[in-house]
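Handout, page 2. Input:
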Amino acid sequence: MDVRSESSSSVRWGKLPGQVIQRSRLQVWFIRVCSTILIWTCLVQLLTVGELWHPRFFTGFFNPINVSTVHLPPPRNYTSNGFLKVSCNGGLNQMRAAICDMVTVARLLNLTLVVPELDKTSFWADPSDFEDIFNVGHFIDSLRDEVRIVKRVPKRFSRNNGSQPLEMPPVSWSSEKYYLEQILPLFNKHKVIHFNRTDTRLANNGIPPHLQKLRCRVNFHALKFTPSIEALGNKLISILQEKGPFMALHLRYEMDMLAFSGCTHGCTTEESEELKRLRYAFPWWREKEIASEERRSQGLCPLTPEEATLVLQALGFGQDTQIYIASGEIYGNEKRLAALRNTFPRIVKKETLLDPEELRQFQNHSSQMAALDFMVSVASNIFVPSYDGNMAKLVEGHRRYHGFKKTVQLNRKKLVELIDLHQNGTLSWEEFSNAVKSSHEERMGRPKHRTIITEKPKEEDYFYANPEECLCEMANCSHSIR
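Output:
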């Protein structure tokens, strides 16, 4: 029995070490799991508190290469007088200028700006939101030392909670005094005001220098396109530059422009009627009956593709000139580009330079497509707009800001006169060419002062085409400005 007892005891004790080891391992794993959960919980809490007390404090830890987030300006500390909502109207560049103006108004009145809404009901019917075109995070962060910008109004001011913002369009071309004396008092009663139209609502001139420079800062630095637009735009620019210097021709011979302006020179009777019907279909295009030839003689029509061809030849551009057509669909399609293409065979468009798949995401988004043309036009060696619309003016301003890059500002009133004289045989080609060149010697985007017409702000030089308050300090142009 003793032996049996020892044997039995021996077997029992022989199993114990394995059981102890297994139990120890389970305890170790249990401690590790609990410790991991505890550490992650603490880390999440720490990050949350860090964001509350000091936003983006930890950004550099997770993105050590992203230098832009490290050097954010400190936020401006001010008591907000209310929230400003804005709905921009028009095409991409009209909305761009309006955004710059509205940021400036918000700064002047110490308001909190809500990220602007973009136009979705105009001729182009582009469904893009602000963040589909512009880098919204950069927009908010880069201006935080001037204006507080939020993506939406707080819930307590939402319509769902019974709040009704005051909707109104500010007066066009308004001064600092108008906003301080007539708009600011409205925020005492209405904590949210919605500007439902924003085109040209701030004067070109008479605005304090620090506010003019803020308009420039928004335009040239805060309004960056989204990474996807910038990547494709830069690819376009690289493809063009690899083939040598290039001209960007903003050929504004598109259906909406012709219908709106009533310019039908060179169109068939059927095309003229189609454009007239379109003009009547849009109630916000106020002028309905328009004398096309009279308007053309006043220089108020875009040049036709055929007229643009003659002008480029007269200015001395050869057939080897690489020309990028910066525009949407040309009215009349390829048949209207025939003369231009025959004279300048190196004509290209984004649709011919890029794979269709690369453009697919931008299809039916006219503002995003226009953003690509905007980038190429700013980067081009020479920019020639056939009409001085919003894109032409905004591109001109950017090119001035980037060192007064060559921009041919066509004198359309003089040009159509010369073209008609040449085509009826009054002027020979040499006389025509010399006259075109001499009339544009001083229209190449050189430094100059804006023309001010106090009683007719619509007819004076546009701030965004020549923001001189922001140029000479950077470009040292005081010696050459005229």
